[in-house]
Specification:
Rossmann fold, 2 domains, elongated, seven-stranded mixed sheet
Length: 223
């Protein structure tokens, strides 16, 4: 496993609570399930993917656990063919796709797990909005930096929640605790947007939207 992937998987699995059944939805290689099993975070793991090719990689990686009955591999589009689980991970997809997987499962009558661990590659705000809407509380929601990339990581547990506009856009832990990776991200975003605003002149180029974004970002480095 490459160092970048290993670091990302370690960060993701660090927020997985101890549970009986852990499901990695859209598992690809199966590294997260392997880590969860090895670390004792789960008694049993379910790996699923819509791609048979990806699922074969996970089956191979987890072959010893499968032989011992501690893991199963399921060909599935989202939660459709999955057994009940306590914790589910959906990582490495766009936020809109993650939101669709969750909302489709809820519409189909699947009993969603007590805890969801989600790592959207973009549109994290859409994931947060859906979670609050369907009855999940954001327990952790922060940025981490690995291999010259930023990743949002969301841990949500069942419960009522109300998100502020800032929490929905940037993540609850980020705006309330200002972790170093988030501050670094804000500064980099400002360095991208400020020159664009200057080049736009007084109007044009979506100047108002850009300046509004700059204003929202600046509050976290000026506070």
């Amino acid at each position: 496993m490459k160092d970048r992937i290993r670091e990302r998987i370690e960060e993701i699995t660090s927020v997985i609570p101890r549970c009986k059944v852990f499901a990695d939805v859209g598992c690809d290689h199966g590294y997260a399930a392997e880590k969860a099993l090895k670390s004792g975070r789960c008694e049993k793991a379910v790996v699923s993917d819509v791609s048979e090719k990806c699922l074969m990689k996970a089956r191979s990686l987890l072959s010893d656990y499968i032989a011992k009955g501690r893991a199963i591999a399921v060909l599935s589009d989202g939660f459709k063919n999955l057994p009940p689980c306590d914790v589910a991970l959906i990582a490495g997809m766009g936020g809109e796709e993650i939101a669709k997987i969750i909302s489709d499962a809820a519409k189909d009558g699947y009993v969603l797990p007590e805890t969801l661990v989600l790592q959207p590659m973009k549109n994290a705000d859409k994931v947060r909005a859906l979670l609050a809407e369907i009855g999940y509380r954001l327990e952790k929601d922060y940025l981490f930096y690995v291999g010259e990339k930023y990743y949002f990581l969301i841990k949500a547990v069942r419960g009522a929640d109300v998100l502020s506009d800032e929490e929905r856009e940037f993540g609850r832990t980020n705006v309330n605790e200002l972790p170093p990776d988030f501050i670094r991200y804000v500064k980099e975003e400002l360095s991208k947007f400020a020159p664009i605003s200057a080049q736009c002149g007084e109007t044009g180029c979506g100047r108002e939207k850009i300046d509004d974004k700059i204003k929202r970002l600046k509050k976290y480095v000026d506070s």
